[in-house]
Amino acid sequence: MSTQTQPPRIMPPHYFLAAICLVTLSHALLPLTVVLPIVRWTGLLLIVPGVLLAVLGANLFRDAGTSIVPLTRSSTLVTTGVFRLSRNPMYLGMLLTGTGLLCALPSLPGLGVLVTFFLVLRQRFVLREERLLAATFGPAYADYQASVRRWL
To answer: Is the pLDDT of residue 86 over 70?
Structure first.
């Protein structure tokens, strides 16, 4: 079992920035025009909790004095605040924000971008971080994993 301790060159916020740029571009080039206005407004409303989840999760890491850098060893297992709702609130926040943007600026290619972003997060970061956390915190992480869902 590999437990990487070097940070990746391309971080999740980089993937997120690329995804929101591509969602926006895909809407500009190939918009879905038959969308109920409520969908667009709902999208805008999803962006706020998405950003909030990401910021609150990052602040909890900072307050605990543990690394926010993916795939590096954590000094503390953070299980309070938004981490009681999701094991990945920062990633969930990015996905929620991206979903909100896609609803506000709908396009079929944008949907593909968002699905790809989810798969990249899951494969390149979430699953590998779970292995690293299990190796670092053992039974404490197993208990946390059993009591809190990965996403929601």
So the answer is: yes
Q: Amino acid identity, residue 54?
A: A
Residue 6 located in a structural domain = no
pLDDT for res 36: 86
Q: What is the DSSP string of 58-111?
A: HHHHHHHT---STTS--SS---SGGGGT-S-HHHHHHHHHHHHHHHHS--HHHH
The pTM of this model reads: 0.93
How many independent structural domains does the chain possess?
Answer: 1
Q: 6 pLDDT band (50/70/90 cuts)?
A: confident
Region of 87 please: left (phi>0), alpha (psi -120 to 50) or beta: alpha
Task: List Cβ neighbours of 84 (8 Å cut-off, separation of 6 or more).
Answer: 148
Angle at 141 between CA 135 and CA 147, to 5 degrees: 150
Structural domain of residue 113, as residue ranges? Answer: 12-27+36-68+77-147
For residues 58-74, average pLDDT = 96
* Number of Cβ within a 10 Å radius of residue 9: 6
Whether residue 47 contacts residue 101, with contact meaning beta carbons closer than 8 Å, is answered with yes
